[in-house]
């Protein structure tokens, strides 16, 4: 692409080539569902097909719960058959309030462009309030097609809550810890699954091996494979339940009257309260409805649950209760023991708490609706939470310990990352110092391109001054590369890279910000280096085109502060470009641009450009970039090591000097993630103390 851009014979040929680059085909499987979410178009046949497929992916845990719920409710046997009615009533209304009303009809709507789970909720909040603890946002990030957000009236309740959350750092940290707790609890719950028997374990191992061997075919094929089996299972347990109701004791239908819940607790008191830990198993797997939303649209999951899963589960539990009413002693033989799954209810509580700011800030719901949703959710979840706490010593402590371990790891990693970013921000180099060095930067400029990796999305990193003062030469073209992760599920390829010039053109310094979402994957066959170079070449050409339409042909190096018009170009490896222009008040101490000046030049020095020189200059600069690329490319990574100060406490020293340092050693570096050749890699280290 670089050479093609530099060797265009005419404007018509160059524009034709640019249009061809804009029209690149997308990966069919990866982009199909995402495009449908953007356009909000789903045909009825497609929704029904996806609803069928979701049975094989989403509802497996909920569907197998009838195997062991009643045994865990009555582990010591049944003394009064009325207790069976009360337990059944609890199961019925737990299924109605939590999976059906809370998740299917409310929480599923809080998706991040089709993505579900705790991180998706946090991503929505980060876009609607400044709660990100790493302040590396830029105005151009909000222009992404996946960066949807709402605006508020300053006097609205949502605006007041937004200001309240943003006012103090401890509120942001509390929200972050809440999100980490929910994520870690989900991991802790997923690691351990109840063992029903040795035979089932063997069968499960075989099935898992089969799933992993075919996972490269995608969720679509896995769904088609398991959906008929799961559908048959639901129809079977529903049919058996209906037959049992007719055959044994149809009086169990009175359990649909919620008054039996009150009578159940009045009779059993503490024992009935403790039994909630077993009844909770009837709604395990509910969080999967939201977490697996990335594979299926909301209407598909709603249809599958409301029309198949929910009625079949009600029939299955009611039929089991009918059978137990006539065969109280068979409860030990009919169902299986399991470990009480404790982390599940904590994940549900976290989701409820995160839905409060979501409903207020994102949906702008009336406060009364928020209170109703929160009250109904907590009315069910808090009793379950108190009940499972009493059963921690029976096995529920295992997922809690696992979750606590992951929480410690995640928080220490986040703390260390924030401290590294703060160091970069406080020690960055002013543009006045860079400009004072002149075009040569005080060194010998040797042919080649140097990519300097930094955490900063603006400003010159401290590692560059360390590099300049300790080495005798620097590359002819210097590019500061920042890999930034945004609170969106994905960044489209055609909006991946933000390119900007630093200083005057004869300095040959640029900035490239590569932006990724939390669901973006770095593929081994991605040519990150080529993407950056192609982006630079396209930026140079488009910059020259923009200069031709500039209001003023006079350019100058500004003083300490000036009114500027900056041009940011979003460039991708397939040639698509978005342009953003805005009037902002900048200073060289924190921003980087050579800008059209509205004030007097610095010491009379100026750069006068005419539109007639544009076509001559762009070809020369593109040719210069191509020569530098052919001379060699070097990736310069700043290996910033943090250490705890000597006067730090023992806990901080262990966390920073040992745990965080260990995590840094085992974590993949950018050179590995982006497939940087080892022979093109240069590490520059520095140590700072926190």
TrEMBL record:
The chain crosses the membrane at residues 42-64, 84-105, 173-193, 224-246, 272-291, 298-319, 339-362, 369-390, 396-413, 433-453, 473-491. Keywords: Ion transport, Membrane, Potassium, Potassium transport, Transmembrane, Transmembrane helix, Transport. It is a multi-pass membrane protein. It is found in: Membrane. GO terms for molecular function: potassium ion transmembrane transporter activity. Residues 447-687 form the K+ potassium transporter C-terminal domain. GO terms for cellular component: membrane. Pfam families: K_trans (PF02705), K_trans_C (PF22776). Residues 50-340, 341-434 form the K+ potassium transporter integral membrane domain. Its main location: membrane. Belongs to the HAK/KUP transporter (TC 2.A.72.3) family. This is Putative potassium transporter 12. It comes from Ananas comosus.
């Amino acid at each position: 692409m670089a050479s093609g851009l530099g060797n265009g014979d005419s404007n018509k040929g160059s524009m034709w080539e640019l249009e061809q680059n804009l029209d690149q085909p997308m990966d069919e499987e990866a982009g199909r569902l995402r495009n449908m979410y953007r356009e909000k178009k789903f045909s009825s046949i497609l929704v029904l097909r996806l609803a069928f497929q979701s049975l094989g992916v989403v509802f497996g845990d909920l569907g197998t719960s009838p195997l062991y719920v009643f045994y865990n409710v009555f582990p010591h046997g049944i003394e009064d058959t009325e207790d069976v009615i009360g337990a059944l009533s609890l199961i019925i209304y737990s299924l109605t309030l939590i999976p059906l009303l809370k998740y299917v009809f409310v929480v599923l709507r809080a998706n991040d462009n089709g993505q579900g789970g705790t991180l998706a909720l946090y991503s929505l909040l980060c876009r609607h309030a400044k709660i990100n603890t790493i302040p590396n946002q830029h105005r151009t990030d909000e222009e992404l097609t996946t960066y949807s957000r709402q605006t508020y009236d300053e006097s609205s309740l949502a605006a007041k809550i937004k200001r309240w959350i943003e006012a103090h750092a401890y509120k942001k940290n509390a929200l972050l810890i809440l999100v980490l707790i929910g994520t870690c609890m989900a991991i802790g719950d997923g690691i351990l699954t109840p063992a029903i028997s040795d035979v089932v374990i063997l069968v499960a191992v075989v099935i898992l091996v089969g799933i992993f061997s075919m996972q490269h075919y995608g969720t679509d094929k896995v769904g088609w494979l398991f959906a008929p089996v799961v559908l048959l299972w639901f129809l079977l347990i529903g049919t058996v339940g209906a037959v049992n109701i007719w055959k044994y004791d149809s009086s169990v239908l009175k359990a649909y009257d919620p008054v039996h819940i009150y009578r159940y607790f009045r009779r059993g008191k503490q024992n009935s309260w403790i039994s909630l830990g077993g009844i909770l198993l009837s709604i395990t797997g509910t969080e999967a409805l939201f977490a697996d939303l990335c594979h299926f649209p909301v209407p598909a999951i709603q249809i599958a649950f409301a029309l198949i899963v929910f009625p079949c589960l009600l029939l299955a539990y009611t039929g089991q209760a009918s059978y137990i009413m006539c065969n109280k002693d068979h409860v030990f033989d009919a169902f299986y023991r399991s470990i009480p799954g404790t982390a599940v209810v904590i994940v549900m509580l976290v989701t409820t708490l995160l839905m409060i700011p979501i409903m207020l800030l994102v949906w702008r719901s009336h406060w009364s609706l928020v209170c109703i949703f929160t009250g109904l959710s907590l009315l069910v979840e808090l009793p379950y939470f108190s009940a499972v706490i009493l059963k921690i010593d029976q096995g529920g402590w295992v997922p809690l310990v696992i979750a606590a371990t992951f929480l410690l790891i995640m928080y220490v990693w986040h703390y260390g990352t924030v401290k590294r970013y703060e160091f970069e921000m406080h020690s960055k180099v002013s543009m006045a110092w860079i400009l004072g060095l002149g075009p040569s930067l005080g060194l010998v400029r040797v042919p080649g391109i140097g990519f300097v990796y930094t955490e900063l999305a603006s400003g010159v990193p401290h590692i560059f001054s360390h590099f300049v003062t300790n080495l005798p030469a620097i590359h002819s073209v210097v590019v500061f590369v920042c890999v930034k992760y945004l609170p969106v599920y994905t960044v489209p390829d055609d909006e991946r890279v933000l390119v900007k010039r630093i200083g005057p053109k004869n300095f040959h310094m640029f900035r490239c910000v590569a932006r990724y979402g939390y669901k973006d994957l770095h593929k081994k066959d991605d040519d990150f280096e080529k993407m950056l170079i192609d982006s630079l070449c396209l930026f140079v050409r488009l910059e020259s085109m923009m200069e031709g339409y500039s209001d003023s042909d006079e350019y100058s190096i500004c003083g300490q502060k000036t009114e500027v018009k900056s041009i940011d170009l979003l460039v991708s490896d397939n040639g698509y470009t978005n342009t953003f222009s805005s009037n902002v008040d900048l200073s060289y101490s924190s921003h980087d641009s050579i800008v059209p000046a509205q004030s007097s030049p610095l010491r009379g020095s100026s750069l006068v450009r005419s539109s007639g020189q544009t076509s001559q200059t762009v070809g020369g600069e593109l040719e210069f970039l191509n020569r530098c690329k052919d001379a060699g490319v070097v990736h310069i990574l700043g290996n910033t090591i943090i250490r705890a100060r000597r006067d730090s406490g023992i806990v901080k020293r262990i966390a920073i000097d040992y745990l965080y340092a260990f995590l840094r050693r085992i974590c993949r570096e950018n050179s590995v993630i982006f497939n940087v050749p080892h022979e093109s890699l240069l590490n520059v280290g520095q140590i700072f103390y926190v």
